[in-house]
Design goal:
Elements: H1 2-25, H2 32-51, H3 57-79, H4 90-94, H5 100-111
Helix pairs in contact: 1-2, 1-3
Length: about 110
């Protein structure tokens, strides 16, 4: 059971990172489905952490580098191109919002800056 939960949370983290890498790398291909996947992966991590408190943020940090490298390789494979993303911060992975509305607002603000 513990291995299943461990594998599940790392899978959610990998998927989350992979979609954020794709989001940052392919602006022209951003979609609501990528944003939904990011939100669902975050929810999946919280759900596993609620069930298994030992799989806490420290656990995620301890696996961060390895999972990021796997996520980047998978993202590059799906994109069929190299990504310039060198790393992801905690804020980028767990706090930033990834929505098309957010991008539109950002672009409008930039337009009038």
């Amino acid at each position: 059971m513990a291995n299943r939960d461990r594998n599940a949370i790392l899978s959610h983290l990998r998927n989350l990172m992979m979609h954020i890498i794709k989001w940052k790398s392919q602006e022209q291909k951003r979609s609501n489905s990528w944003g939904n996947t990011i939100r669902n992966s975050r929810k999946g991590i919280k759900k596993v952490q609620k069930k298994k408190p030992s799989l806490n943020d420290k656990f995620l940090n301890n696996n961060w580098g390895e999972i990021f490298n796997e996520a980047k390789k998978e993202a590059e494979k799906e994109m069929t191109e190299k990504s310039k993303v060198k790393n992801l911060t905690w804020k980028e992975v767990f706090i930033n919002k990834y929505t098309l509305i957010g991008i539109i607002v950002f672009l409008i603000i930039k337009l009038f800056d």
